[in-house]
Design brief:
The strands form 2 sheets. The protein has a 3-stranded parallel β-sheet. Strands 4-5 form a two-stranded parallel ribbon. The chain is elongated and about 85 Å long. It folds into 3 domains: 209 residues, HUPs (Rossmann fold, 3-Layer(aba) Sandwich), CATH 3.40.50.620; 61 residues, no CATH class; 87 residues, Orthogonal Bundle (Tyrosyl-Transfer RNA Synthetase). It is mainly alpha-helical. The protein is built from 18 helices and 5 strands. The site of tryptophan (TRP) has 12 residues, from strand 1, helix 8 and strand 4.
């Protein structure tokens, strides 16, 4: 069974509120979000329930304050609430409802095989992660995505298996609940509603796909259905499903779109990560940024000022790759190898670029820090909009499962 690309413009992504965001987040995930919001109908949310799967023993006030600080970080880098819907997972209880329903039909073996399950348990061995919630983490994530009929989910590499699982869960749901007595007859009835020309086109495209596996035909058929106004939801689902011979397609299979990993390492050259203590936070103050860069390690061969160095052995050089233009980089390469510049000189243009960027971020954050109700209102609006979309999906889901006792 298939995706329902009628809503193929939808992007959904979530982030766990684990603390202040840093430049690693910015150059990886957040810049990507800022770009996506111009092209797609984006839903970005704070995955606070997901955070609880590993932080359930921690002071719950920490998660609460992390949530608001993280939203300010998003806004500060240019995530725009007039373009993207920003919300908090726990304020849209439909996530929990769909999670519950999907958990009924998700085989235990699928969850035990998800690589992050064992990896994270080993990595966070100080925590007891032998919990129902932690094993079920990917089901909740599937619910997050399927609620909005997302066509694309931008994630890092480690998350790709979760998106794969989401697709499998959607397929299983559609298989279990999309079948109905007299499906073929009902699909044939629905085809008639496409009008004479539409019906003919639909049949031709369906044949091209089922007989020759012509994917372009499948896409055209999807577009035909998406643009048709005469079909009810149920009829549309049937015709999507009928294209591939199955039952109705109620939940949409998403694609993972891989977010390019940040090219910016941590201050010490390792991956930038809060747990390594090698970060520059998005809203660090200028003094701190300056101090952090000044104390960055450099090529160990440059003990004295007139020892030549090799930029490839120096994390400062990787920062220049992200922050400096070609002429500055040439100056660094030559100067380092010939010892005509010192490491302090080399760091100076970097500090300047970082301070310019930091100033922008700080300026954008300022109004939200001064008046927290601004952030509260943005989130309240986002939650309301998310709930409307989520509720539509849940009505379909409940109806398909005969849970609509109205
Ligand atoms: N699991 C993701 C992470 O750890 C966060 C997340 C939760 C998410 N739900 C999502 C990402 C839905 C994309 C879509 O990074
Ligand atoms: Fe690194 Fe620059 Fe010093 Fe060379 S001059 S070692 S690139 S900081």
């Amino acid at each position: 069974m298939i995706s329902k690309p009628g809503q193929s413009n939808r992007v959904v992504s979530g982030m766990r509120p684990t603390g202040r965001l840093h430049l690693g987040h910015y150059h990886g995930v957040l810049k990507n979000w800022v770009e996506l919001q111009h092209e797609f109908d984006c839903y970005f949310f704070v995955a606070d329930w997901h955070a609880l799967t590993t932080l359930y023993e921690e002071d719950s006030e920490t998660i609460n304050s992390n949530v608001w600080e993280m939203v300010i970080d998003w806004l500060a880098v240019g995530v725009d609430p007039s373009r993207a819907t920003l919300f908090i997972q726990s304020r849209v209880p439909e996530h929990a409802e769909l999670n519950l329903l999907l958990s009924m039909m998700t085989p235990l073996g699928w969850l035990e095989r998800v690589p992050t399950y064992k990896d994270q348990q080993a990595k966070l061995s100080e925590k007891d992660l032998s919990t129902h919630g932690f094993l079920g983490y990917p089901v909740l994530q599937a619910a997050d995505i399927l609620l909005y009929h997302a066509s694309q989910v931008p994630v890092g590499e480690d998350q790709v298996p979760h998106i794969e699982l989401t697709r499998e869960i959607a397929r299983r749901f559609n298989y279990l609940y999309g079948r109905e007595p007299g499906f073929e007859e009902k699909a044939e009835e629905a085809i008639k509603k496409l009008g004479k020309r539409g019906a003919k086109l639909y049949r031709n495209l369906r044949n091209a796909y089922t007989e020759r596996g012509d994917h372009e035909a499948l896409e055209k058929a999807h577009a035909l259905l998406a643009s048709n106004q005469n079909l009810s939801n149920a009829e549309q689902e049937r015709l999507y499903g009928y294209l591939e011979g199955g039952g109705r397609s109620i939940l949409t299979e998403p694609e993972a779109t891989l977010t390019e990993a940040s090219k910016l390492p941590g201050l010490d050259g390792d991956k930038m990560s809060k747990s390594y203590g090698n970060t520059i936070a998005l809203r660090d103050d200028p003094e701190r940024i300056e101090k952090s860069v000044r104390s960055m390690p450099t090529d160990p061969a440059r003990v004295r000022r007139d020892d030549p160095g090799d930029p490839n052995k120096c994390p400062v050089w990787q920062f220049h790759h992200v922050y400096s233009d070609q002429s500055t980089r040439d100056w660094v390469e030559n100067g380092c190898r010939s010892a005509s510049i010192g490491c302090i000189d080399c760091k100076q243009p970097l500090i300047e670029s970082l301070l310019v960027e930091q100033k922008d971020i700080a300026e954008r954050a300022e109004p939200y820090i001064e008046d927290p109700t601004l952030v509260r209102n943005i989130i309240a609006d986002g939650c309301e909009k998310a709930r409307e979309t989520a509720d539509e999906t849940m009505e379909q889901v409940r109806a398909t499962m005969n849970l609509d006792y109205y």
